[in-house]
Automatic annotation (TrEMBL):
<keyword id="KW-0812">Transmembrane</keyword>
<protein>
    <recommendedName>
        <fullName>Type II secretion system protein K</fullName>
    </recommendedName>
</protein>
<keyword id="KW-0472">Membrane</keyword>
<dbReference type="GO" id="GO:0005886">
    <property type="term" value="C:plasma membrane"/>
</dbReference>
<keyword id="KW-0813">Transport</keyword>
<dbReference type="Pfam" id="PF21687">
    <property type="entry name" value="T2SSK_1st"/>
</dbReference>
<keyword id="KW-0997">Cell inner membrane</keyword>
<dbReference type="InterPro" id="IPR049179">
    <property type="entry name" value="T2SSK_SAM-like_2nd"/>
</dbReference>
<dbReference type="Pfam" id="PF03934">
    <property type="entry name" value="T2SSK"/>
</dbReference>
<dbReference type="InterPro" id="IPR005628">
    <property type="entry name" value="GspK"/>
</dbReference>
<dbReference type="GO" id="GO:0009306">
    <property type="term" value="P:protein secretion"/>
</dbReference>
<feature type="domain" description="T2SS protein K second SAM-like">
    <location>
        <begin position="222"/>
        <end position="281"/>
    </location>
</feature>
<dbReference type="InterPro" id="IPR038072">
    <property type="entry name" value="GspK_central_sf"/>
</dbReference>
<keyword id="KW-1003">Cell membrane</keyword>
<comment type="similarity">
    <text>Belongs to the GSP K family.</text>
</comment>
<feature type="domain" description="T2SS protein K first SAM-like">
    <location>
        <begin position="106"/>
        <end position="216"/>
    </location>
</feature>
<keyword id="KW-0653">Protein transport</keyword>
Length: 329
């Protein structure tokens, strides 16, 4: 080691000290950077938790208001009050929250392609399969592609291992680059459709706005009092080729301002004269809404959380069925 008392070694001693100072500076800088990162992560985690708590509160407020909406008019649910899709501001400390409520039953219920008392015994429901095929065709999908996707959807959910004509079971998925198996259970989220044979990315992107995964095998409960003209393909789906999308849109645009008072009144509409819907399809037309979707967006301190929840209002009180979260950038 250099001896600073010797004139010839004083430079080496100074260099050693400078090197030690430099190393200590690097170590201190790294430690401070990691401490700052840990502090930011802790702060971000706290902000996300806070935002989620606000989102949960917003969903609960919406659930109670949905209960009030249904109770105020138990015989029919209409667009009165401008509740459908209208952003509602919710005051939250240190941020802003917005809630939107929509009719979650006006969609094609992917689980309606099967029927059964329990999830252990799900059998193909032909009318549900034909409706999904009709929806795809109404959206412009080729008839053959639509038939394959619809049959494969039913095989994906039903509990047997025998594929329908044009459908697919485990042996088809076993040949995939990354093999997997059919679910043989209800879908929980519509995004699961991407795993189904025949549901190409193009078809999925086209049909995604029109489908849902309700927690029931019931045929899609279409509320004719809240179905918007832009949702005409869903009504054309029920008529399975007897009514064009344009005709369905015109029918919905002519709906009475206060909605239909009965399904008999609806089916007597002049634009439906001469048409003969299947009995199952006729019963699908509803005057009330049983499922609602709530979307709550919260922004607290630059941290954004989006919560989407499904509310079952078929019985009182309205019940939260499921929810999921996403975060904004």
């Amino acid at each position: 080691m250099a001896d600073p008392r010797k004139p010839g070694e004083r430079g080496a001693a100074l260099l050693t000290v400078l090197l030690l100072v430099a190393v200590m500076a690097v170590v201190a800088s790294t430690a401070l950077e990691r401490l700052a990162l840990a502090t930011r992560m802790t702060g971000n985690g706290g902000a996300v938790d806070q935002a989620r708590a606000f989102a949960d509160a917003g969903t609960e407020i919406a659930r109670l208001r949905i209960g009030d909406l249904v109770a105020a008019s138990p015989g029919k649910t209409t667009l009165a009050g401008n509740w459908m899709g209208t952003p509602q501001a919710i005051s939250v400390p240190g941020g802003v929250a917005t809630a939107r409520v929509t009719d979650a039953g006006n969609c094609f219920n992917l689980n309606s392609v099967v029927a059964g008392e329990t999830e252990a015994d799900l059998k193909v429901r032909p009318v549900g399969v034909s409706q999904f095929q009709a929806l795809l065709q109404a959206l412009g999908v080729d008839a053959r592609q639509a038939q394959v996707a619809a049959a494969s959807l039913a095989d994906w959910i039903d509990t047997d291992g025998a594929p329908q004509p044009g459908g697919a079971e485990d042996e088809t998925y076993a040949r995939a680059p990354r093999p997997y198996r059919a679910a043989n259970r209800f879908m929980v989220d519509a995004s699961e459709l991407r795993a189904v044979n025949g549901a190409t990315p193009a078809i999925y992107g086209l049909v995604r706005p029109w489908v849902c995964a309700l927690p029931t095998a019931d045929l899609s409960p279409i509320n004719i009092n809240t179905l918007l003209p832009d949702q005409a393909p869903l009504f054309a789906m029920l008529m399975q080729g007897q009514l064009s999308v344009a005709q369905a849109r015109q029918l919905l645009a002519q709906r009475p301002a206060d909605g239909y008072g009965s399904t008999v009144e609806f089916w007597r509409a002049p634009s439906l004269a001469g048409l003969s819907p299947l009995e199952e399809a006729a019963r699908q037309v509803k005057l009330t809404t049983g499922f609602f979707e709530v979307e709550v967006s919260v922004d607290v301190g630059g941290t954004q959380v989006v919560e989407r929840a499904l509310i079952d209002a078929r019985q009182s009180p309205a019940t939260l069925i499921r929810r999921n979260w996403g975060t904004g950038a």
